[in-house]
Design brief:
- By secondary structure, the chain is α+β, with helices and mostly antiparallel strands.
- The protein has a domain of 90 residues.
- Strands 1-2-3-4-5 form a five-stranded antiparallel sheet.
- α3 runs parallel beside α4.
- It starts with a helix and ends in a 15-residue tail after the last helix.
- The mean pLDDT is 82.
Length: 144
């Protein structure tokens, strides 16, 4: 066996050891409970993605944000729908019990509210964006 073959074998064995170490970093029970929770919430995640409620919510927050001169960032992070406006965040999260809306400030959940996908998203959209003050108009530029 040449030096290069030996080096390649050593690198492969180190890589496989590192991958195995990362995979086994959490206890088996925790991995099983995480998997069971994901499977239990998958039905609600699918409903969230395809629901007319979600489409209407996105339309409403875009319209309200536009009237307040604020861009609304919409992002799917896994099964969660995250909405961001300035320093405000809001997420719709599927859980085994249903969908919850999480109002987030300073990186942590302030509160969560259960969401009925058969209802009207208008109240939820207005509640989230109610704390955003309208932007002040830019003063006109002076020309010399």
């Amino acid at each position: 066996m040449s030096f290069l073959d030996s080096l390649e074998n050593n690198l492969k064995s180190l890589e496989s050891r590192e991958e195995g170490g990362l995979r086994n970093s959490r206890p088996q029970g925790q991995r099983d409970s995480d998997r069971a929770r994901a499977q239990a919430s998958s039905r609600h995640a699918e409903q969230l993605r395809k629901s007319p409620y979600t489409e209407e919510l996105l339309r409403l927050v875009t319209r309200i944000g536009h009237s307040r001169r604020t861009k609304i960032q919409m992002t799917w992070i896994g099964n969660n729908l995250r909405l961001e406006a300035r320093d405000r965040r809001f997420e719709l999260r599927p859980t085994p019990e249903g969908i919850v809306a999480a109002f987030i400030e300073n990186g942590g959940d302030v509160r969560t509210v259960p969401v009925d996908l058969a209802g009207n998203p208008d109240g939820l959209a207005r509640e989230w964006l109610a704390t955003l003050p309208p932007r002040e108009p830019e003063p006109p530029a002076e020309f010399d």
